[in-house]
Amino acid sequence: MGKYFISETDIKTSWEFVLTAFWQRYPNPYSTHVLTEDVVFREVTSDNCLLSRRLLTKTNRLPRWAECIFPANLSSSVYIIEDSVIDLDNRRFTTLTWNVNHAKLMRVEERCVFFSDQNRPAWTRLIREAWISSGVFGLSRPIQEFGLARLRSNQMKAMKGLEHALSHLQKTSSSHHGDSTEKPKTCSSASTSQKPQQYV
């Protein structure tokens, strides 16, 4: 049995702005661990949904205690598949990511759902869930704990990266359309997160 993580965040920015900022997050100064991003395919379905698959490369530095156990030639990069669905009619954006390599050492699956709040059109709700598991006999628990700690750290970086992209959009929109355009609010000052939960 692995670790489970969940958090809920309210972003005081419209769903359209958040959706646009998501695709413009990289590069940013808070996500230097993300090395590359490539679109594998995109398709528009008959029910007006956009399906995408991307391949991302991220750094994969092991903790010091693990460097003494695992081979020195273990790849320092991890390859991530990201599937996403944009449902324009329901104003819902869902991503599912998982690592392709090092899956026996540690597998992390993450699902994020961004959806428009009908009662507050200027806000976007984000629900993030993650499942962390390890197939290394005798070491699965510390590996999962390490994975959970890194996930929390990367989540904070991801939100800061999204905030950075929103800020860039704000400047771009202001320069092209003047001050009448909606100005995205920062995520950190305008969001509230529930305490993450986990199981052992």
TrEMBL record:
Domain PRELI/MSF1, residue spans: 2-174
Ranges for region Disordered: 168-200
Polar residues bias: start-end ranges: 186-200
Listed GO CC annotations: mitochondrial intermembrane space
Coiled coil: none
Top-level taxon of the source organism: Eukaryota
Biased composition (Basic and acidic residues): 176-185
Name of this protein: PRELI domain-containing protein 1
Taxonomic lineage from the root: Eukaryota, Metazoa, Chordata, Craniata, Vertebrata
